[in-house]
Amino acid sequence: MLSEGGCVFLYSLMIIASVCTALGIAWDIRHHPQHMKVMSVTWPVTGLYMPVFGWFVWQALGAHKRTDTHDHSAHSAHHHTISWRDACVSATHCGAGCVTGDIIAAPVAAFTKVTLAGSAFFGHTLVSFVAAFLLGILFQYLPMREMGEKSRVAALIKAVKADTISLVVFQAGMFICLWFFRRGDVNSAPDTGSVTFWGQMIVAMFVGYVISVPANYLLLKRGIKHAM
After folding, report:
1. Are 61 and 216 in contact (CB under 8 A)?
2. What φ, ψ does residue 116 adopt, rounded to 5°?
3. Alpha-carbon separation of residue 172 from 169, 178, 227 (angstroms)
4. How many domains are there within the chain?
5. Residue 92 belongs to what domain range?
6. What is the Cα–Cα distance from 45 to 39, expressed in whole angstroms?
7. Number of C-beta neighbours around residue 193 at 10 A
8. Per the UniProt record, which residue ranges are transmembrane (predicted)?
9. Given this model, what pLDDT does residue 104 score?
10. Is the distance from CB of 42 to CB of 16 less than 8 angstroms?
């Protein structure tokens, strides 16, 4: 077992590595333009919760996808053979919306001191979920429009249908992990200004991503989502 000081040091390294990974991916994207604009945001955000490892994920799944080899048509999407690789990419797309929302929501929840059923942790969970859901749907809505959906309402409905389950699974995995880190304490408010909080968030976000991959695979197989 690491001492408290050891944990803080480890989490500090993780945070520094995650920021460096995100910046490295963002820099490399200049040489590897993505077939969908939103993916140019998705990949750097992925680096934020996959320190160092995220670079290799980007190289394996994103760096070599060219804009000129992707067919945006629904016909092409329906006839594409779905693989676990597709599910992993789709999960990064969902995760980017969740993570962006969670990062924004954490300080907001701390500042407003929101509670739910008398619990500061549940209050933070609610605010984070709402923010993650809204950003996650936006990250799905934008590609819908980019793929040619002219109706804003139709694109929004499709985005909600496509990403709701994936978002819920991602967030559930993340918050169960955070609850575990807190040893079941739901009364005290998370210390969003601490290195420990953000280090644990990185781990929890990665757990959320991992368990959302199977959910994305099923959504892709059933045609509810389309491969990114």
Report:
1. no
2. -135, 120
3. 5, 10, 23
4. 1
5. 85-221
6. 10
7. 10
8. 6-26, 38-58, 121-142, 162-181, 201-220
9. 96
10. no
